[in-house]
Amino acid sequence: MWFRRDLRVDDHPALAAAASRGDAVALWVADPALLGSPHHRAPMRLRFLRQCLEALDGALAERGVRLVVREGDPARVVREVAAEAGADLVHVTDDVTPYSRRRDEQVAGALAGAGVAMRAVGGPWRVEPDAVAGSKGEGYLVFTPFFRAWDQVPLAERIPPPASLSGPDLPSDGLDVLPHGDPPIPAGPDAARARLEEFIRSGAVDRYAEGRDLMAEDGTSHLSADLRMGVLSPAQVGRAIGGSHGNAPSRAAFWRQLAWRDFYAHHMARHPHVAAAALKPSFREIAWDDDPTLLAAWREGRTGFPLCDAGMRQMRATGWMHNRARMVAASVLVKDLLIDWRRGESEFMRGLVDGDPANNNGGWQWTAGTGTDAAPYFRVFNPILQAKRFDPTGAYVRRWVPELAQVPDRFIHEPWKMDDETQRAAGCVIGRDYPAPVVEHALRRNEAIARYKDADARFAARMEAAA
Predict the structure, then answer these.
(1) Are 311 and 400 contained in the same domain?
(2) pLDDT of 285-314, one tens digit each?
(3) pTM of this prediction?
(4) 242: burial class by Cβ within 10 Å (0-12, 13-18, 19+)?
(5) CA-CA to 255 of 20 to 30 Å: which in 138, 172, 234, 411?
(6) What secondary structure does DSSP assign to 230-265, as a single string?
């Protein structure tokens, strides 16, 4: 069993299939190409990953085997471990990123040359891409019809963990290739189950519809990193909340949010080019600015837009950011600072413990208006109005931007409107203690729309000329 994004023993179709055949070896490969890529130089996520792997090793040891860790090119490592074990079959869960697809093809080829097969059983989603293929077999580009089809797929029955495992005792390189230190939140299946249970027992799941966007409240599940590493399966979450049928509106709203994970994973499986480029061809040549000063201000949480800055500082401190803040921060980067959405996508991947290639890419392209989205590109989040609506008292902003802690409520989202006396009384002089907005939102909104229109027109002209 070659573990990747499925670091658990419970409700694990591929592990159950491997264990059913007799002796088994549990392998995790420290892939330098993956761990060293720009998207995965993420210290907090790597510490979380290490603790997940330590928990997996403990769960396996309780059942009779240990996790074998080897560092190197998977095409070489998996073949070597299969040979050492005398294995005839390697089980994996599937994945959808372009890199994982290339890697698995190379590994399968190397194994085939040694007379060993590789079999994918399940994946890190609830519903297989082929099960929600649409009327033409090409999947869905719009979420709502996807959700209707996804929601009709029954929840799978739980697969119990193997009671015991046996297999050869192979040498392991250990986990020192990953950074030491505590992750921002406890990691592993036990910690994930505790978070899920607290989400349900506290009643947060039954207040989710109205509470998930109120940024100062802790109204979300905080399960995203657990789902990212596969220490908790989407089916486990679905069974715990009862799916969607017959549920109260709040549980149904949470169930719908779970579907977005599968939507973006299925989308990347069918359109792998979105990992590096806009889905919509007309928006692949938008004239982005390359302003390192503005990018640094955004990255460090000092754009002068308090809600955006609070979100970016929350991510830097905790490895997590409220979803509403993610959308606002992304919109500020793309539509206000006019910086390529891919710069922000990379920043989020390095900063978020739950950084997931498909979900992160899908979310950025949704906000940028370049991806799978029924809404037009001229939808632009107003960071001030968003703050007033979803952080009305400024509690979220005050927590993460302490310079603004004493600013009166009426100015908390527009502190530059304070007069000099109010600034001094609040201990926040604009331009000294906290910046004025680095750009003017209304002007930049118009400029962003103009650039999108220009890119669209140039693409249409090329298509017409080619025809």
Answers:
(1) yes
(2) 999 999 999 999 999 999 999 999 999 999
(3) 0.95
(4) middle
(5) 138
(6) TSS-HHHHHHHHT-STT--HHHHHHHHHHHHHHHHH
